[in-house]
Amino acid sequence: MSNSAPGGAGVTSKAVDGFPKVLEAALKRVATCECDIDTSCYARLRSYSNQAIHRNLQRGIAFEPLECLAPSTISRRFTLE
Ligand SMILES: [Zn+2]
Predict the structure, then answer these.
(1) d(CA 81, CA 43)
(2) pLDDT tens, 11-65?
(3) How far is ligand 1, taken at its centre, from the CA of residue 51, in Å?
(4) Distances in whole angstroms, Cα of residue 61 to Cα of each of 17, 20, 80
(5) At what angle do helices 71-80 and 59-69 cross, to 10 degrees?
(6) Cα 12 to averaged position of ligand 1 atoms, centre (Å)
(7) What are the CA-CA distances from residue 6 to residues 2, 9, 11, 12 (Å)?
(8) How large is the C-alpha radius of gyration of the chain?
(9) What is the 44 CA–ligand 1 centroid distance (Å)?
């Protein structure tokens, strides 16, 4: 099966290949902030465009799944076992 749409399969493949880096960047973003874990701030998660959901953005909630999925965390867990 092939995808002849411009940028179709090639773009998807690049997105999949880059996903571990996205996870790492997201983990670093939520792990390294000085605001409380049950809230968020403009340094990390908040922006003008998502202001309607600011009260729902809690970096602690974002941290847990990212810590489980990020490649550095996975490799660290394998090292420890
Ligand atoms: Zn913050």
Answers:
(1) 35
(2) 778 778 888 898 899 898 888 899 999 999 999 899 999 999 999 999 999 888 9
(3) 14
(4) 25, 19, 25
(5) 60
(6) 31
(7) 12, 8, 9, 11
(8) 16
(9) 5
Domain ranges of the chain: 34-81
Q: In the prediction, which pLDDT does 81 show?
A: 46
Distance 77 CA to ligand 1 centre (A): 26
d(CA 3, CA 54): 39
Q: What residue has token string 């409380």?
A: 36
For residue 80, report the distance from its CA to the centre of ligand 1, in Å.
Answer: 29
pTM: 0.66
